[in-house]
Design brief:
mainly alpha, globular
């Protein structure tokens, strides 16, 4: 049967060209391999009392292009989209756990945690990186902003697990870390954008960029609350199944992220905060919806976690990592020490005891998704502008 488009539609191309079957089969084979390998490795690491996600990262590194190169290149081409989809899942789950009363309780401390540790970590790396590597202080500052971001992909699932198990919830510790980590990324990425713009000779309005931090946060939260309110009314009116509600919310979240790319040149806007705010307002208005949706997202997270961390692992260039050697490890350790000091300072005056403060300090250390997303950006910017790419490496 031939359609009216005469083989111009994608479906007809798939039926007409046998090679497309092979293309899809190879892609599925690659996905099947990393899923099976990740599940088995995660189980093994769990038996060894090592976090499962470390095992999944390990699979991504081994399967990635810098070691065995077993991943389909086309899968690597869409790895950014896969990581983004997984990030949407965990940010929505985070939003469904952010209760207003708890946020009010930890608000001041969360505000401080959202920028103080990152500033101290980036500042220390700016000072020490030129001592270890052939970097100027300005290049070291760019490196500091990249390393300064905390990873929501690591922090959020763990904090949600603590909330589910009622650990630390009386003092709002998981909520504190959830809220602070999301704003931390917005702050660090804006500072990084300013520095890389100046470094490559772009015209950067520093005052406007800095003012854009609170504007983007406020606008992101406001848009998310508005969209979340509309969605909860829509669900009340038509009462779709929980699965369809999840699909609607995830689709809307993707569109919000798309909107950020469209309007970012004119208006600073943090779409990831909008995604979290959707969950927050639905939890406030219809707690039953929030719990149902969170349960559905928890099931989706099983596959999303594998895709996210294997893709992050595949981006790790082990050759460059070995070249940095002990100096690289030492620099990371020094930066994390500074971050820990900053986190402890933010907790002064809180009602947390010493053990709880240590927990917050340690929980606020992980690095993964942000570094994987923008770690290679300076190198690409240097190539694009015909600059020496040594510092970028």
């Amino acid at each position: 049967m031939i359609c009216s488009f005469e083989y111009n539609c994608n479906l007809c191309k798939l039926v007409a060209i046998p090679g497309d079957y092979l293309y899809i089969e190879i892609m599925l084979d690659s996905l099947a391999e990393i899923i099976i390998a990740s599940l088995m490795t995660a189980w093994l690491f769990k038996k060894l009392r090592i976090p499962e996600l470390v095992g999944i990262l390990f699979v991504g590194i081994i399967f990635g292009p810098y070691v065995l190169n077993l991943l389909n290149p086309d899968l690597l081409d869409i790895s950014g989209d896969l990581r983004l989809a997984a990030l949407i899942v965990i940010l929505l789950r985070a939003g469904f756990e952010l209760k207003k009363d708890t946020l009010n309780k930890v608000g001041k401390t969360a505000f401080l945690l959202s920028f103080v540790p990152a500033i101290i970590e980036a500042g220390i790396i700016t000072v020490f990186a030129p001592l270890f590597f052939d970097l100027s202080y300005f290049e070291a500052a760019i490196l500091g902003t990249i390393l300064g971001a905390v990873s929501p992909a690591v922090v959020v699932p763990m904090m949600i697990d603590f909330i589910d198990k009622r650990k630390g919830t009386k003092k709002g510790i998981p909520t504190l870390i959830l809220a602070a980590s999301s704003i931390d990324d917005v702050f660090v990425i804006v500072i990084y954008s300013i520095l890389i713009g100046i470094y490559t000779g772009s015209q950067v309005n520093i005052a406007w960029e800095l003012a854009g931090i609170p504007i983007s946060i406020a606008l992101g939260v406001a848009v998310g609350i508005g969209v979340g309110y509309f969605l909860y009314k829509l669900f009340d009116r038509f009462n779709p199944r929980a699965t369809k509600r999840v699909l609607i919310i995830m689709a809307v979240s993707v569109l919000l992220l798309r909107m950020e790319h469209v309007i970012s040149n004119w208006i600073p806007y943090a779409a990831l905060l909008s995604v979290m705010a959707i969950g927050f307002i639905i939890l406030e208005k219809r707690e039953q919806y929030a719990h149902e949706l969170s349960n559905k997202l928890a099931k989706i997270w099983v596959i999303a976690e594998i895709l996210l961390f294997t893709m992050v692992g595949s981006a790790v260039n082990v050759h460059v990592a070995f070249q940095s050697g002990l100096a690289g490890l030492l620099l990371v350790f020094i930066g994390l020490t500074g971050r820990s000091i900053g986190s402890w300072i933010c907790l002064i005056g809180s009602d947390l005891n010493i053990k709880e403060r240590l927990f917050v300090v340690i929980a606020y250390l992980p690095k993964a998704t942000v570094q994987a997303a923008i770690g290679a950006a300076p190198l690409m910017a240097m190539r694009r502008n015909g600059m020496d790419t040594g510092p970028g490496e």
